Amino acid sequence: MDRRKAVAMLNKYVTTPHIITHSYAVENVMRALARKLEPDSEDLWGMAGLLHDLDNDLVDWQTDMSLHGPKAIEVLKEEGFGNEAMYSAICAHNPANGSKIESIMDRALYAADPITGFIRAITLVYPDQKIKSVKVKSIIKRMKDTRFAAGANRQAMKSINHLGIEFSEFAELSLNAMVEIANEIGL
Q: Does pLDDT of 93 surpass 80?
């Protein structure tokens, strides 16, 4: 898969700045998860993470969540990009569209999507607002405080356990993946 083409599509279809940075964060977390779970699939998993919200500015999915995912797949097919495994993961990250989590990559994207926003929210309450200052113990502590980032899907993040990864390990892996691209994601 050609990452340059994927980035070009992201920039063509997504105009919301925080969704673009979120997409880069999810891409890097997915790459880290692939290295751990399916090393030969790193590019595929990364592209699924990068393009999982490709339809963000194309449909009003806040009103009808069933549109989120299927529209992205429609665009990807029109662009001649991706494969069935990628399409499945992109749809499965949003169960509201009727998709089921079936593969390892589906489960990984389902968990990776919310943790990046959660870590971002934690970063922004730090005095320096730098991701390098965030500690794994802070992520674990904030998971218990359901008032903090109340919209974050904690169930999805914790579902990483289904892949044999403890949440603390997932938090560390995700944090490290985001620190690697701190400048790119504005943290």
A: yes
Per residue in 104-142, pLDDT tens?
Answer: 999 999 999 999 999 999 999 999 999 999 999 999 999
Domain count, the chain: 1
Give the pLDDT confidence score for residue 60 in this predicted structure: 82
Q: What is the pTM of this model?
A: 0.97
Alpha helix ranges (H) inside 126-184: 136-144, 154-158, 167-180
Which domain range does residue 43 map to?
A: 3-180
Residue 141: partners with Cβ closer than 8 Å, 6 or more residues away? none
Neighbours of 28 (CB within 10 A): 24
**Would you say residue 185 lies in a domain?**
no
CATH number at residue 19: 1.10.3210
Backbone angles phi, psi at 91, to 5 degrees: -70, -40
Closest CA to 5 of 93, 68, 82: 82
- For the segment 144-159, the average pLDDT, to the nearest whole number, is 96
Q: Is 150 part of a structural domain of the chain?
A: yes
Give the number of other CB atoms < 10 A from CB of residue 38.
15
Q: Tell me, yes or no, whether 114 lies in a domain.
A: yes
Question: What secondary structure letter does DSSP report for 157?
Answer: H
Place of tokens 């665009």: 75
User: Residue 34 corresponds to which amino acid?
Assistant: A
Residues 81 and 141: their CA atoms lie apart, in Å, by 39
